[in-house]
Structure formats: structure tokens, C-alpha cells
Write a structure and sequence with these properties.
The complex is a heterodimer.
Chain A (H helix, E strand, L loop, with lengths): L9 H6 L6 H12 L7 H9 L5 H5 L6 H14 L5 H13 L17 E4 L1 H7 L1 H13 L5 E2 L8 H5 L3 H15 L3 E4 L2 H15 L6 E3 H7 L12 E5 L2 H6 L4 H8 L5 E3 L17 H5 L1 H17 L4 E4 L2 H10 L5 E3 H7 L5
Parallel strand pairs in A: 1-2, 1-3, 3-4, 5-6, 5-7, 7-8
Helix pairs in contact in A: 2-5, 7-8, 8-18, 10-11, 12-14, 16-17
Chain B lengths: L2 H10 L4 E2 L2 H6 L13 E3 L4 H14 L3 E4 L16 E4 L6 E5 L4 E4 L5 H8 L4 E2 L12 H7 L6 H4 L6 E7 L5 E5 L11 H5 L8 E8 L1 E2 L4 E8 L2 H13 L6 E6 H11 L8 E8 L2 H16 L5 E5 L2 H12 L1 H4 L8 E3 L5 E2 L5 H14 L3 E7 L4 E8 L4 H20 L18 H4 L2 H13 L30
Parallel strand pairs in B: 2-4, 3-4
Antiparallel strand pairs in B: 1-2, 5-6, 6-10, 7-11, 8-9, 8-10, 12-14, 12-15, 13-14, 13-18, 16-19, 17-19, 18-19
Helix pairs in contact in B: 1-3, 8-13, 13-14
The chains are: A alpha/beta, B alpha+beta.
Chain lengths: 343, 475
């Protein structure tokens, strides 16, 4: 294989060994499938150090679906009980409580609305301010949304860790509720999982789903912001920009703030550089590795002299904030809501 | 931990040694058709470590195979006889930059485009841009004397290697060449090591000449319904004393592959030429005007030139994607590198293209032809079902005929990709007494044959390349 994937892989950049290269992971997948390899330290490390960011897939001219191969390897490892302990622990919490943090799955009261905001584990339990900001912004553009009152998790961690039966069960449960309403996401992992993975897995029609930046940008004339003099850059989450192709709505929203100086980092839009989280999986497997990757993104923000990084994924938010060393990092809904002109 | 692992770990640290089966499996592949696994992979960080590793390997007679990014197309970086793979990518430093003296000093593991990104703000570059520019390492480029689209004007890697640091098979650290843009002080040993494919020593540092970066360029895409007309145009451009920075060709098969892969909408004609001039804007415009006249004499269906960098990049995107896009062209067929780097005197390009087309038809193969026709270097990709033994037999026969024709035209087996293992079976066709002399040199520098054994036909001439294939071949 040509190896054209090598220069874009954030994991290889940090680890160097061929097994961390997308090409290496493809070969490992082949070796495992053909019985030439058995789980080993390097094999497990390769599978879980991949953030599934998909940048290699875009770069690969023959179009090898490296991301799918990474997930297939993880699934094989799961079936053979070779999933790393840290990931098993995360899955156990998810199975028990319905969220990856093992927190109580408090259901919100049913609200009579055909429009639902689905926060997901991370936003609900770590960043409730995103819920508040999202609902406020939706209200500002004349949309009343109710809160999701099902299981906290969209099931992505099950899928990404190869626990496919559990993913299927949760997906089926959620899908039944979601397909009868329009659902809005701020978390791109949930957005991608529900919009793409659910219908693929359950062979159903794609539910009516949107990312919140799509809704807000389509009604941008209803949003009125205070003037700011900040230099702001935007970090495209892999799941939103690369997998779901949503790149312009966040930019349109940020550029609508009067006085803002929007600067673009290197590696923007579909070519975005991964924050290292891997939708929480790589971060759980190796915090050290994932933080090293995040630090590279922070360097890029400094290169364009940004005063602030804005993103639209709670996992990216956690990663970048952890290593930003004082450079403010905000979720886009929180940033936009804080800049709304008082009515 | 085994004895040799302990010794190697003592030299480079245990985190830089691996015998994990999955890791060895990954290093058993490069961009070639072959597979062969090492016993251990080591990632040294400096010349002293390399020297200690090589000294140890020589004492124990363990094969040593240097490896950069693993983009070699003929199995150069595979451990054919097992042993130690030296992954050189940690040695990726730029240790000195002296553009006023026209040179830089770099580690072998630095990636080509990373070096040029560092040189760009200074207004200089290392020109021999290979197709794998974003991936391949300078050490690998020196090892195979790589080049690419710019060779017609700027030459190949060998023309830029001013000095080398090489660890010889007994562990001696040799400094050869100089920091001057020329010297006539004895044997030109840099030229001996350049293209030696790791069979004479391990390159640990490279002093490279750099060139001023042109500030202006213009690129044309020219489409022909007749591939021979495209070939004749190439010779006419050279005959008329034009010196393009690049002069490339793609045949219909390649155009279709790129269109399918990148959806570029290139005209699906028999042949496309890409012509680039660079330099002073007035000179470039003048050259492009002359080139347009010459190209139009062969009645192209399209001639379109642009000096807009974005448009130039779009034109080049198609050409650069040929190699990896070929596998998308036909379901069930894989694009393999078997006879992919022939070079002939420039005016023989039309004849070679015609012959390749006939050979493909004769053996029932799909062969895409493209390459640097401006310097006589043609690449082909052969598409077939790699699971079928019969298809490999036909590919082998086709290669014998292609190489035979190429050599009869005064050409060579390889213009820029080297020999490795895949082309080793054909070495005697091109080199007679010369191969014996190469073997004598090899024996003198590496008497225990530990340096990348099995390559370049230095041990013995393999009967076929259809061996140790990475593909599962049935009947």
C-alpha cells in the first residue's frame, strides 16, 4: 500500500511505529481476519490509539475504509475478550447507568414537543451549560425544543469499542423514540451515530436530525449579537466536519458577530486535525496520547494568533481545554449565547 | 527478552525495540507486491546508535535493512532474509541550513515535503519532487536515487547529494563528499552510495544542495486523441530547445482511474500531457507561447494553460493521484507495481508506449501508462486479479517483453524507483560485466552480506518476482 495516509495520522505523528499508521492498522486488520495474528500489545495499542478521526480515509486515493477496519478490529478484540480494561470499565458503566460516567440517568419530564434536543452523555453530565445555551439559542430563533428523556447515551461508545450487540439494543430502543420526532444535536458523535449508524444498522430510514449549528445558521437573521473585538478561530470536530460534512454553518454563525475577527487555522474543515479524543474512546485508553494530539491543535491556534478557540463538540472541548494553557476554549452554543444582545 | 533484544534495547532503549508479532507483521509490507517479516524492528535516534547496532549485527551476522516511510515500490525496505529493520524515521532533523552556501544538512528520516516546507520561507527548495513527496523520506530518496516530475529541468536526487554520513557494515562511520557544490577530489563515493539501496551501508546524514525556488510558473494541460501524437509532441518540445520544469504524460487508462477516484472530469482521451514552465514571468510566458504552438501542431482536442496556482494545482492533482488511484478502476483487479519505472532516450517514448500497449493486449492485461515523458521515464501500472496464478504468469511474461524492448532502445530498468527485489530478476538483461563489478564492490564493503541482502541481484539473480507475494494467490 502506498502509505499516503502516513502524514495525516495524528497517532502516527506521536508514536512513530508502523503499527500506528493507518496502513499498519489495515495490515493488522488483514492479519487478524486471516488468522495470521493474535491479539498482542502492539495490536491492541494500534486499534485503540486510532482516534477513528477518518482523515486517512479522505486522503486515501483507493478509498480504503480505514475507520471501518479499526472498528472491525476492535469488534474482534471485544469478541475475544481482549478489550483493554479501561474501555471495559467504561462499557460496564454505560451498560449499568446508560451513560459513560456511571451517573444516575435522570429522565427529564416529557414535554409535548415534536422537536427534541438530544444532549448525549458528555453534555448532560459534564457540560449542562451547553443544554442551557442551546435551548436559549433555539428559543431565540423561534424554535421550542423539548429535552430528550430516554437513555442518556446514543450508543456510540458501544459501537466504537466493538460491543455491537449492546450497541444494537440501545440503538433500537433510541431509534423507536427518535424516528417519530425531529431531533437536534449539539454533540457531533450523537449526531453522526443517530443519523448514519442507526439506519445502517437497523436498516431503517434516516431519522430527521440536524446539528444545532445548521438550525441556527438557517435562521441567522433572528440572532442579534453584541459587538466583540476578539480574534476567534474554529476547531472543526472530525465527526461534524469530516464525517457529516457540516463546516460552513459554524463559520457563518461566528462571522455574523459584529466586529469579530475570524481566523482560520491550518487543517480546517474536512481536513481538520483530530483533538485526540476519539469520541472518548482513545482518551479513555490513553489520556497521555490524546492530550499530546490536542496540544498540536493548540499550537495551530497560536500560529494564527487566536484569542479564543470555539468548537462544537464536547469531547473536543474537553481535550483542547485540558492543554490550552490559558487560551480560552468554548463550545459554540455557549459562546454564541454569551454574545447575544440583551432583548 | 531474547539476547539480541536485550543488546539492542541497551543501545536504543527498550521503547525503541519491538519483536511484537503485530509490529513485525506491519513492517513485513511496504508499497511493493511482496511481504517478508523482520525478526526485530529498531528505531535509532542518532548515528552512534546506528553504528553500535550495525557493529553488533555484523558480529552476529544478522541482516540489517534500513527503512524510511516504507513507500518503496520494489520491496527495498523488506527484510528478505529476516533480521533487523532499522526504522530511520526518528532521525528526522534539519541540523544545518546554509542557503547562502546552497546546502542543508538533514537526517535521513525527514520527509521530503517537511524539508521543503522549512526551506520555502527562505526561498529555496530541494527539487526532485517524487510522487510520494508528502510521505517519503530523504534517506529513502538517496537510497534509490529517487526523482520525479521536475527531473527534466532539475535532475535527480544524485545531483543534489553533496555529502553523506554512512555507517558501513563493520560499524565504521564514514563521512564522504563535502559541503561544496562541486569537488574533484578522488572517487565520487556519494554517487556510489546514492542508489545503493542500503546494500553498502546505512545513510545517517545527508548534505543536500538546494536550489532557488522559482517565483512564477505556468502549467498547461493538453489532450490528444492519439497517444503517438502526444509522444511526438514531447520530442518536438525538447527538439525546439524548450526546457519545461515538468513534462508528464497519462494514457486513457490512467485518466479513467483518476476521474473515477477524484472526480476531476479530465477529458477521457488517448493521452494527456501536462507541461509546466517556471522561472521569470516573461520567460515563462514566452516559453508557454512557443509550447502551445508546438502542441497545437499535433491537433490536440484541448490546450489549456494557467498561471493561477489554484488551477495549476488542480491540473497536477490528477497526475499525482494516478499511482494510488489505479486500483479503483476495475472491480476485482488490483494495480500492481511490476514493470513500473522504465526509462528510455526521450525520443523513443512514442515507440515504447506503442509497444507496451501491444504487449498488454497480447497478454490480456490492462496496463496504464504515465510518467515523466520529458526525461524518458515511463511508469506503468498493471491491473489484474492478483488472486489468480495465471494472471501473475502473464504479468511476468509481459514484463520480460517490456524490459527487453526498453533495453533494446538504449534504456534502463529503472529511472527513479530502484531495483529492490521485484526488478532483481531482470538485472542481467541490462547489466553484464557491470553487475559482476557491483558484486565485487558489495563484497569489499560488506563481506558478511548483512546490508539489505536479497536486493539488487547482488546475491544471486532471482528466477522470478512472483514470490513472497503479499496477495493470497490461488490457481
Amino acid at each position: 500500500m502506498c502509505g499516503f495516509c502516513r502524514p495525516v495520522c495524528p497517532t502516527l505523528e506521536k508514536r512513530g511505529w508502523e503499527s500506528y499508521a493507518p496502513r499498519g492498522l489495515v495490515n493488522i486488520g488483514y492479519g487478524l481476519l486471516k488468522g495470521k495474528l493474535r491479539p498482542s500489545k502492539a495490536l491492541v495499542d494500534s486499534a485503540y490509539s486510532c482516534t477513528t478521526c477518518g482523515r486517512c480515509v479522505v486522503k486515501c486515493p483507493p478509498g480504503i475504509k480505514v475507520r471501518d477496519i479499526a472498528l472491525a478490529v476492535r469488534s474482534t478484540l471485544f469478541q475475544g475478550s481482549s478489550t483493554p480494561a479501561s474501555i471495559r470499565s467504561l462499557l460496564a458503566k454505560l451498560a449499568k447507568t446508560g451513560n459513560i460516567y456511571g451517573k444516575e440517568n435522570k429522565r427529564t419530564p416529557e414535554k409535548d414537543s415534536d422537536l427534541i434536543f438530544f444532549p448525549g452523555c458528555n453534555i448532560k453530565h459534564k457540560h449542562p451549560e451547553i443544554i442551557t445555551s442551546s435551548l436559549r439559542l433555539l428559543n431565540e430563533v423561534g424554535t421550542q425544543a423539548g429535552l430528550w428523556n430516554g437513555t442518556d447515551c446514543c450508543g456510540a461508545p458501544f459501537m466504537l469499542a466493538g460491543a455491537l450487540d449492546q450497541f444494537q439494543a440501545l440503538a433500537r430502543e433510541n431509534f423507536e423514540k427518535i424516528k417519530s420526532s425531529r431531533t437536534i444535536f449539539s454533540c457531533p458523535i450523537g449526531f453522526q451515530t443517530v443519523k448514519v449508524s442507526y439506519p445502517t444498522l437497523l436498516k431503517g430510514r434516516a431519522p430527521d436530525t440536524s446539528h444545532i449549528t445548521e438550525i441556527l445558521s438557517s435562521r441567522i437573521e433572528s440572532l442579534h449579537f453584541e459587538e466583540t473585538r476578539e480574534t476567534v478561530t474554529y476547531h472543526d470536530p472530525c465527526y461534524l466536519a469530516r464525517l457529516m460534512k457540516v463546516t460552513e454553518p459554524p463559520r457563518k454563525l461566528l462571522n455574523s458577530i459584529p466586529g469579530i475577527r475570524f481566523v482560520e487555522m491550518a487543517d480546517a474543515r474536512e481536513n481538520t486535525r483530530c483533538c485526540g479524543s476519539g469520541a472518548g474512546i482513545t482518551e479513555t485508553y490513553s489520556k497521555e496520547l490524546s492530550r499530546e494530539m490536542a496540544a498540536e491543535r493548540i499550537k495551530q491556534a497560536h500560529q494564527v494568533n487566536a484569542d479564543r478557540i470555539v468548537t462544537s463538540c464536547p469531547y473536543c472541548l474537553d481535550q483542547l481545554s485540558a492543554v490550552s494553557n490559558g487560551l480560552p476554549v468554548d463550545d459554540i452554543t455557549v459562546f454564541l449565547a454569551s454574545r447575544l444582545r440583551p432583548s | 527478552m531474547r539476547g539480541y533484544e536485550r543488546t539492542l534495547a541497551r543501545i536504543v532503549g527498550k521503547d525503541n525495540v519491538s519483536t511484537d508479532k503485530a509490529e513485525l507483521f506491519c513492517y513485513s509490507f511496504d508499497a511493493s507486491i511482496h511481504t517478508s517479516a523482520p525478526n526485530v524492528v529498531v528505531r535509532p535516534s542518532n548515528t552512534k546508535e546506528v553504528s553500535e547496532i550495525v557493529r553488533y549485527a555484523n558480529r552476529k551476522q544478522i541482516p540489517i535493512v534500513p527503512r524510511g516511510a516504507g513507500t518503496a515500490l520494489c520491496g527495498h525496505s523488506l527484510a528478505w532474509n529476516g533480521g533487523i529493520v532499522l526504522d530511520m524515521t526518528r532521525m528526522n532533523h534539519i541540523s544545518e541550513t546554509h542557503v547562502e552556501d546552497l546546502y542543508v544538512v538533514v537526517g535521513p528520516g525527514i520527509v521530503y515535503s517537511t524539508l521543503n516546507a522549512a526551506l520555502k520561507p527562505l526561498g529555496f527548495f530541494f527539487p526532485p519532487e517524487p510522487g510520494s513527496a508528502d510521505v517519503c523520506t530523504i534517506g529513502g530518496m538517496v537510497a534509490v536515487n529517487a526523482s520525479g516530475t521536475k527531473a527534466i529541468k532539475y535532475g535527480a536526487t544524485r545531483d543534489y547529494v553533496l555529502g553523506l554520513e554512512v555507517v558501513l557494515s563493520n560499524g565504521t562511520i564514514l563521512k564522504t563528499g563535502s559541503r561544496t557544490i562541486k569537488n574533484s577530489s578522488g572517487y565520487q563515493l556519494c554517487r556510489l552510495f546514492t542508489g545503493s539501496e542500503g546494500t553498502l551501508g546505512v545513510i545517517t546524514e545527508v548534505t543536500l544542495k538546494v536550489a532557488p525556488l522559482p517565483t512564477y510558473s505556468s502549467t498547461a494541460i493538453v489532450a490528444y486523441d492519439d497517444l503517438q501524437a502526444a509522444g511526438r509532441t514531447v520530442a518536438d518540445l525538447i527538439r525546439c530547445r524548450l526546457l519545461p520544469a515538468a513534462l508528464e504524460i497519462m494514457d486513457r487508462t490512467c485518466i479513467q482511474a483518476v476521474n473515477k477516484s477524484l472526480k476531476l472530469g479530465l477529458p477521457e482521451v488517448e493521452g494527456i500531457l501536462i507541461v509546466e514552465f517556471d522561472g521569470h514571468p516573461d520567460a515563462v510566458r514566452d516559453d508557454m507561447r512557443k509550447a502551445e504552438g508546438i502542441c497545437r501542431a499535433e491537433n490536440p482536442t484541448l490546450f489549456s494553460s494557467s498561471d493561477d496556482p489554484a488551477e495549476e494545482e488542480r491540473i497536477w492533482a490528477g497526475r499525482k493521484a494516478v499511482l494510488p488511484s489505479m486500483s479503483r478502476l476495475k472491480d476485482g483487479a488490483v494495480s500492481v507495481s511490476v514493470a513500473e519505472d522504465m526509462i528510455v532516450p526521450i525520443s523513443n517514448i512514442p515507440e515504447l508506449i506503442g509497444t507496451i500497449s501491444k504487449i498488454a493486449k497480447k497478454h490480456g492485461l490492462v496496463i496504464g501508462t504515465y510518467g515523466h515523458c520529458g526525461d524518458g521515464n515511463l511508469h506503468t501500472k498493471v491491473l489484474f486479479d492478483v488472486r489468480k496464478k495465471d494472471a501473475w504468469t502473464r504479468a511476468w511474461k509481459a514484463c520480460l517483453e517490456i524490459y527487453g524492448k526498453c533495453i533494446s532502445l538504449g534504456g534502463s530498468l529503472a529511472g527513479e524507483h530502484g531495483i529492490g527485489y521485484t526488478r532483481a530478476p531482470f538485472m542481467r538483461m541490462e547489466h553484464k560485466a557491470e553487475l559482476d563489478l557491483m558484486r565485487t564492490i558489495k563484497m569489499a564493503l560488506d563481506p558478511n552480506n548483512i546490508m539489505n541482502p536479497g536486493k539488487l541481484s547482488l546475491d544471486s539473480v532471482p528466477k522470478t518476482f512472483v514470490t513472497r507475494l503479499r496477495y493470497p494467490v490461488g490457481d
